[in-house]
From TrEMBL:
Biased composition (Low complexity): 15-43
Protein family membership: Belongs to the glycosyl hydrolase 2 family.
Domain of life: Bacteria
Pfam families xref list: Glyco_hydro_2 (PF00703), Glyco_hydro_2_N2 (PF22666), Ig_GlcNase (PF18368)
Residues of the Beta-mannosidase-like galactose-binding domain: 74-187
Provenance organism: Streptomyces yangpuensis
UniProt-recorded name of the protein: Exo-beta-D-glucosaminidase
InterPro entries with a match to the protein in the record: Beta-gal/glucu_dom_sf, Beta-mannosidase-like_N2, EBDG/EBM, Galactose-bd-like_sf, GH, Ig-like_fold, Ig-like_GH2, Ig_GlcNase
Keyword terms of this UniProt record: Glycosidase, Hydrolase, Signal
Length: 905
């Protein structure tokens, strides 16, 4: 199957880079050391190590005891950040040029990563009378761990990307400088319960070996406070109250009996009690509303997904005190919401948030290929997801750091984390995958991974499920281990056995389907309630290739590669996939040529690709939206495969690596607009979909059909329309099966206006009297063959027509963190041509002085189509600093509009 699949300085810069070492040779090494981390003595402090010095064990002859001792020189080692794979560190050091450009990644010798690598970091302490613990996770794939020359754990203990470990190192630390060192083992996702890339992208040569989460030094007194969390129960359906149960574990790390006072507040409500602990005793403590009435909140502030309500958060603060002195503290943010996901009458998973049914409109999330974490780049992408009208992101493996889910909570984006397919995670149950069978030790690692992720994610209201399987559901032994770990962690969100249409022995049916497609199908495919069409919950699906903009293509490929891209569709494309199923663009190119005509140049190829991707992505989301309230076999969820890519890609992305936006992006944005008029490829219906919470009334819908030259062939209007809110749709018109004088290729313009006559939705389709014909009997797991294609070649004869534009820019005067440093450019487009020909899919790109796109940018709308005399005003919001001191300009182009650039200052 197609597995679930930053604008960072390393790997994206156009600056000069060092020469690449010869294959098989050791990388050239600059002299660098990691910074020293100052650890405070404050009880309850948790201080992440600020970075590492790293080096291959093949180049280190000293003993582990020497390497892990304070004062070891680490001469010639590389600097690495606090979360860094080996290759990410080498890229940051400039050892290799941009691996996202061309095939440069092939030049990085994989042999250098078949041996362990050292990670070494120093930290300082003043007071060693307090207890000191080392808290770590995110080791890929396993490590021996040393502190001040002593091994405290072996690879048999610290193994697996998601397991979490805490080591008491009080007896080993000393005043002044201390050293922690990790001997990291190579990763192989077929053999280890870590992370792999499958067919998403060309896997990094180091297979992401390294440490990709914070390693934290924790300080405390005699009593440690752990596992603090709040279990929330929202009264349904009224939401008038919420019960909060506070839980934690107290651990006496001393040799004496200790009495501690555990006190805290949650939602403004204080509580506390004294607890006596025997030497080295650990005890679970709970505070419930029955004992502490203040833990029952009246009129709680309920968390909602974006577009449905606000995102308020509460805070838990706990302190364990011994003899009036704080011994340890804990702080946890959490949200109050109710999430359920029952199976509907057709066996599909139907999510309900706070009692309201929700059509999941999602995308598959990918981290950076080298697992580099950049909070700004991450938030930019999350804002893009909201801009597209998406409500959910699915994380199949590659479960991001805590800050990702903090951002999702803040922005109201739902998440569906889970284990990945086809690697070791499914080695026992998916025999068509590449994963090896499990050992007894693997079962322990899997349970520990589930326990750690459940404890980490349970308080995030944005997390609405955990998928314990992807392509395959776990067997009974594995599932029991997962479920026991989830229960012990007080997990309350639904547990889904798999993303495919299968069942697990305990949890039962998944209620999801994974029928594809993953490669090209025509827009009409999505309307049939079979295969990947709009029914049930499709956990991963799209029409495959998403060719980026010409700006991005020129940034990621050489001129010769770009020639091959449009001239030779049978050529393997390094930037598509390592899979033999997806390594060419043959299916896509055949459809593009058959429907739109053979490309005449690279520019023509990209121009046609954007048109094709706009219509296909729009149709996918529109079909699922239209069918969401059907009485029989409704659509309940769709996850576009994928929302983004972890590198410079030619497929599976609504937004590209550099955050540029093309036809796929704006097709999704159009389909998911709040109040929307759309056309049905299957029945020629004109339907209004109301994604707003409130009903809409007094609407007028109009459909007009045109020849490509703008000659009107059909026109009909429906007035006095009302549509209920919450995703309800209403079919208001149907275009006749036959319209006199309609040419083979034609245009359909749909307009929706409100009671005041204002346009609230405009949607333009390019259609054919010759329909795409699918051969469902020959459907494969990744696509359904098309036996004949719609003829859209008439668009090539559209006369060129001019679009006039005026623009201005204002800097945001607000001092809020959200708005600070932003600018807004407003542009009015006006069809300035003579005759009746429309300007089809007019694109506006905000560019700097050299014509380079300013990214990220959020447009109110884009890629719009205008008829003579029509105009539209669009706005773009972006960071002023991304102009790099130049004045903003707008590059305007379109299907039949000459490219021009105008000032926008």
């Amino acid at each position: 199957m197609a597995g679930l699949a930053l604008l960072l300085a390393a790997g994206t810069s156009g600056a000069a880079t060092p020469a690449v070492p010869a294959p098989g040779s050791a990388p050239r090494t600059p002299s660098a050391t990691a910074p020293t981390t100052a650890v405070p003595d404050t009880p309850g402090s948790a201080t992440p190590l600020s970075g590492y010095a790293v080096q291959s064990t093949a180049r280190v002859t000293d003993t582990a005891e020497a390497v892990s001792s304070p004062g070891y020189p680490a001469t010639g080692w590389y600097s690495a950040g606090p979360r860094s794979t080996v290759l990410a560190a080498l890229l940051a050091a400039g050892v290799y040029p941009d691996p996202f450009h061309s095939t440069r990644q092939k030049l990085i010798p994989a042999a250098d990563f078949t041996v362990p690598w050292w990670y070494r970091s120093d930290f300082t302490l003043a007071d060693t009378t307090a207890r000191t613990h080392l808290d770590l996770s995110g080791v890929i794939s396993a490590a021996d761990v040393y502190v001040n020359g002593h091994r405290i754990a072996t690879t048999g203990t610290v193994t697996g990307a998601y397991t979490r470990h805490e080591f008491d190192v009080t007896a080993l630390v000393r005043p002044g400088t201390n050293t922690v060192a990790f001997r990291i083992q190579p990763n192989n996702p077929r053999k280890h319960l870590t992370m792999g890339w499958l067919d998403w992208l060309q896997p990094p040569p180091d297979q992401n070996m390294g440490i990709v989460r914070d390693v934290t030094v924790r300080r405390a007194g005699p009593v440690a406070l752990r596992d603090a969390h709040v279990v929330t129960t929202l009264a349904m359906p009224s939401m008038a109250s919420a019960d909060l149960t506070v839980k934690a574990r107290l651990r006496n790390d001393s040799d004496a009996t200790v009495t501690t006072t555990l006190s805290g507040t949650v939602g403004g409500a204080p509580f506390g009690r004294s607890v006596t602990l025997a030497p080295h005793e650990t005890r679970a403590v709970a505070f419930a509303p029955a004992e502490h009435p203040a833990l029952r909140l009246e009129s709680p502030r309920v968390w909602w997904p974006a577009h449905m309500g606000g995102q308020p958060m509460y805070a838990l603060d706990l302190t364990a005190t011994v003899n009036t002195t704080p011994s340890d503290t804990a702080h946890q943010a959490f949200g109050i919401r109710d999430v359920r996901a029952p199976l509907n009458a057709d066996g599909a998973r139907q999510y309900e948030i706070n009692g309201r049914p929700l059509l999941v409109k999602g995308g598959g999330w990918s981290p950076d290929a080298f697992l580099r974490w950049d909070p700004t780049y991450t938030e930019d992408r999350l804002k893009y997801a909201l801009d597209l009208g998406l409500n959910t992101l699915r994380l199949e493996g590659h479960i991001e750091p805590d800050e990702f889910f903090d951002l999702a909570d803040r922005h109201g984006i739902l998440t569906l984390p889970g284990w990945e397919c086809c690697t070791k995670w499914e080695g026992e149950t998916n025999r068509s995958g590449s994963g090896e069978r499990w050992t007894t030790a693997d079962h322990s690692v899997a349970r520990a991974s589930m326990a750690a992720e459940a404890a980490r994610l349970r308080h995030h209201p944005s997390v609405i499920s955990f998928l314990i399987g992807s392509d395959a559901a776990p067997n009974e032994e594995i599932e029991r281990g997962y479920l026991d770990a989830l229960k012990a962690a007080d997990w309350t969100a639904p547990v889904i056995p798999a993303a495919s249409d299968t069942s697990s022995p305990i949890t039962g049916r998944s209620g999801m389907k994974m029928t594809g497609p993953y490669d090209w199908v025509p827009p009409g495919y999505w309307y049939d309630k079979r295969e990947g069409g709009a029914s049930g919950f499709n956990s991963e699906t799209s029409a495959g290739p998403d060719i980026p903009t010409l700006d991005t293509l020129r940034r990621m490929m050489t001129p010769a590669e770009l020639e091959t891209l449009w001239k030779d569709p049978t050529a393997p494309q390094y930037h598509r996939s390592p899979s033999a199923t997806f390594d060419t663009l043959e299916l896509y190119a055949a459809a593009l040529t058959a429907r739109y005509g053979a490309p005449a140049s690279l520019e023509d190829y990209v121009r046609k690709a954007q048109l094709a991707q706009y219509e296909n992505v729009r149709a996918q989301f529109e079909a699922y939206a239209r069918n969401a309230k059907d009485p029989s076999d409704p659509s309940t969820g769709v996850v576009y495969w994928m929302f983004n890519s972890g590198w410079t890609s030619l497929h599976w992305q609504l937004v590209d690596r550099y955050l540029d936006q093309g036809g796929a992006y704006f097709g999704a944005k159009k389909a998911n607009e709040p109040l929307h008029v759309q056309y049905g490829y299957d029945d020629r219906s004109v339907t209004v979909v109301n994604n707003r919470p409130a009903p809409a009334s007094g609407l007028t819908a109009r459909v007009t059909l045109f020849a490509p030259d703008g000659t009107q062939k059909y026109d009909r209007t429906a007035t006095g329309l009302s549509v209920a809110g919450g995703g309800v749709s209403s079919t208001v018109l149907t275009v006749p099966e036959s319209v006199p004088g309609l040419p083979t290729t034609y245009l359909a313009r749909l307009l929706l206006t409100d009671a005041a006559g204002r346009e609230v939705s405009r949607n333009v389709y390019w259609l054919s009297t010759e329909e795409d014909v699918l051969d469902y009997e020959r459907s494969d797991w990744y696509y359904t063959p098309t036996t004949s294609y719609a003829d859209l070649s008439g668009l090539n004869a559209m006369p060129r027509t001019a679009v006039a534009a005026t623009a201005s820019t204002t800097a945001d005067a607000s001092t809020t963190a959200e708005a600070s440093g932003t600018s807004t450019t407003t542009v009015t487009l006006r069809h300035a041509g003579t005759g009746g020909t429309p300007a089809l899919l007019t694109d506006v790109h905000l560019v700097g002085e050299q014509g380079t796109p300013v990214l990220p940018v959020r447009w109110t709308d884009n890629q719009v189509s205008l008829w003579p005399g029509e105009s539209v005003t669009l706005t773009a919001t972006y960071r002023t600093a991304d102009l790099h001191g130049s004045a903003p300009r707008l590059r305007i182009s379109g299907w039949n509009t000459p490219t021009s650039t105008i000032p926008a200052a």
